Amino acid sequence: MLETSRLILRQWRYSDYEPFYELNANPDVMKYFPSTLSRDESDMLADRFRATIETNNGWGFWAVEEKNTSEFVGCVGLAHQPERFDFSPCTEVGWRLRKEFWHLGMAYEAAGCALSYAFDVLNLEEVVSFTSKHNLPSENLMKRLGMVKQGHFMHPALPAEHHLAEHVLYKINGTK
User: How many domains does the chain have?
Assistant: First the structure.
């Protein structure tokens, strides 16, 4: 479990699955993903995040909870990408928050905590992040986190003609 001044990043609970599904079914939240997720798809993703945290000795895409209310905010975390991309192996930092928690600095706070974990605990040399070239809010967050643009790439899971296929790639180096 990790903590910031307002948030807890922790292992998933089954009580997170319903609000996670609502997040994944929201067209605004999923605007820069190929589609919204069904309940089964959302539950399988939460199961995968949960299993990864167990397998990785406590790290992965954590469930994020607001300290004061214990409300599920979304997920933020780290994912090792051993071979999926041309720039693999790498570890990415990513986030997906419920819309009511946008523009409150929570993604920045939680992603900063995840990056500290990556560098201070996992001793990684660098972490990447990427998103569709159209997702300016996430790209701006990458910049705020101190990440530096590395260029563009075509996401291998999407057909080249898909409007979300072209992605921006950012990187940040550890201080060690």
Answer: 1
* Token pair for 47: 């199961």
Structure tokens at 71: 């409300």
Q: Would you say 111 and 93 are in contact if contact means Cβ atoms under 8 Å apart?
A: yes
Query: Prior bond to 82 cis, omega within 30?
Result: no
Among residues 68, 157, 64, 173, which one has the least CA distance to residue 123?
Answer: 173
pTM for this one?
A: 0.94
Contact criterion met (CB below 8 Å) for 78 and 61: yes
Residues with Cβ within 8 Å of 29's Cβ and at least 6 positions away in sequence, in order, are 23, 96, 97, 98, 99
Domain of 122, in residue numbers: 2-173
Angle at 70 between CA 78 and CA 97, to 5 degrees: 40
CATH number at residue 96: 3.40.630.30
- Condensed to tens digits (0 to 9), the pLDDT of residues 59-102 reads 999 999 999 999 999 999 999 998 889 999 999 999 999 999 99
